[in-house]
Write a structure and sequence with these properties.
Layout lengths: L5 H14 L1 H23 L3 H11 L6 H10 L1 H23 L13 H36 L3 H25 L3 H8 L6 H5 L4 H36 L8 H4 L12 H32 L16
Helix pairs in contact: 1-10, 1-12, 2-12, 3-4, 5-6, 5-12, 6-7, 6-8, 10-12
Length: 308
Amino acid sequence: MTGFSATDAALEGFRITRERPKALAAWTAFSFAVSLAGVLITVNMPADARRALEALKSEQTPDPNALLQALATLSPLLLFGLAVQCMMAAAVYRIMLRPADQKYSYLRLGRDELRLMALTLIYLALGVVLIAAIQLVVFVVAMVASALGQGAMVFVGSVTELFTIGVFVYVAVRMSLAPVITFEHGKLSIFDSWALTRGQFWRLLGAYLLAICCVFVVAVLAMILFWSVSALVVLATGGSLTDLRAIQQPDETRLATYANPFMIAYMIVGSLFTAIYYAVIAAPGAYAYRALGLQPPTPTVAGHPWES
């Protein structure tokens, strides 16, 4: 059975950013521009949109009607975020599958990105359907278990919760190559990933988990370094560590809050991490697809073109 190295797939994003510093710099600049746009949007956000955003951030389970209203109010902002995510993912796919297409440092907003956005929205709708189906099964199982006593209900509830998580993880991993397939084929490929990932679930899951762990470690190290350097600079200039509190809890209604030099530095570091994050998260799927879905060209006298 054709396979691939889960470790190599997980680390592919780091290899991309290391070998293409110009692309990484361009992605960082793009992420910083997006951050600036986000600041302007947040500062000038209407009151109803701000309330909707606070409702989504709330830890309490929102009322379904209130949730739908909040999503409708914030839909332009959500679509903007989705477009940015798809542009970054497509840039990574472009590097790995179309390396000669270097225009604009692989970043653009065209048909490929629009197809990825459409695929994401379709998957969200299918996710809602899957949730509804699972909830129906849970309800039926709970009704049956209630007749067997309290102990049976607790046991069945625990098993059902594990089953639900397992179903979501399994389906998500099996369908995870759909974005890169859609990008490569130039058309929506909603279910093609299922056949391609047959027998590859554990290898894919391992690659994704390792990539997430690696990017988490990078985030922690970056934050430790940033806060350490910031603290030293503040103390060396006669300031107080409380001056850094504005970075952690900024007043999102005032533009002056973001004029703080430490806040600007924080946004730059965050933009660099964002660029690395997208590369690390998007690369494993493209690496797996390249190994599972593409056949390498026949070697030539000058060398193997697949290695280029």
